[in-house]
Amino acid sequence: MKIQGKMFIWLSVFVLAMAIVYGWWSKEPAGTTALFLAFGLCIMIGYYLAFTARRVDASAQDNTEADVADEAGEVGFFSPHSWQPLSLAVGGALAFMGVVFGWWLLYFSAPLLLIGLWGWVFEYYRGENQNQ
């Protein structure tokens, strides 16, 4: 995680330099604002990763002598089959299209988003996946 933190911090320095150059050269406020916001996001992520890396054990990617197999093993638990992300994706797409085509699309997207979110949060509290 130390490597990712350093990468994002250096990326934020680069984006800040580009935001200053772009703002000075183009005098265009929208792109300049977007670049300064990208700088803010990069510095937040870099600080979080660098801050967290001090509290967790060193992983294989932090060791220059490590092999690829050193990081092998179980990564985590992932749902084997879940339809909830599809509902969230369709609801999110409809919600964003509602901004473009008309706010009336939110009447169709809000139930899909709520059903998908509710189903995803409580997926392992009901049905065949219920923990005993």
Task: Explain how this protein is built.
It is a single chain. This protein is mainly alpha-helical. The protein folds into two domains: 2-57; 84-121, no CATH class. It has four helices and no strands. The longest helix has 25 residues, at 2-26. The radius of gyration is 22 Å and the shape is flat. The model has no long low-confidence stretch (mean pLDDT 88). It is found in: Cell membrane. One of its GO terms (molecular function) is cytochrome-c oxidase activity. One of its GO terms (cellular component) is plasma membrane. This is Cytochrome c oxidase polypeptide 4. Belongs to the cytochrome c oxidase bacterial subunit CtaF family.
A few lines on this structure:
Helices cover 64% and strands 0% of the residues. The longest helix is centred in the N-terminal third of the chain and has 25 residues, at 2-26. It starts with a helix and ends in an 11-residue tail after the last helix.
